[in-house]
Amino acid sequence: MRFTPVVIILVVISIVGAIAIPFGDPQFLDRAIALELSFIILAILTYKDFRKALYACIPLAVIVMVGNSLASPHVEMMTTFSKPFNAIMLIIGGYVLQAALIGTTVLLLVRTRQGIVQKQKN
User: Fold this and answer.
1) Greatest pairwise CA separation for the chain in angstroms
2) pLDDT for 48-63, tens place per residue?
C-alpha cells in the first residue's frame, strides 16, 4: 500500500467534488454523490494495490470530461464565469484533474507493464 500519484489525484478529485457538490444543482445531487463515491472507491482500491481498478480510472475521467462538455449549463458557466466559484471548481475538477488522472494512470500502467516484462526477462 502506498500513495501513488493516481491515488493522490483521486483523493484531490474527491475533495474538490465534496466542496463543489453543495453549490451544484440540487436535482443532480444523487448523481454527483454517486460519481464522487466512485472516485473514493477507486482511491481506496488503488491505494490497496488492486491494479485492476486502474483500468476504470481512464474511462471514468473521459466520461466526466465529455459529460461536462456536453452539458450546456456547464459550458455556459465556464465560458461566461457567471458563477466564478462554480466555474473554477468545474474547470479544475472536471478537466484539469481528470486529465491528470488519465496521465498518471497511463504512466503507472506503463511502468507496471515494464516491470512485468523486466521480471520475465530475468
Assistant:
1) 59
2) 999 899 999 999 999 9
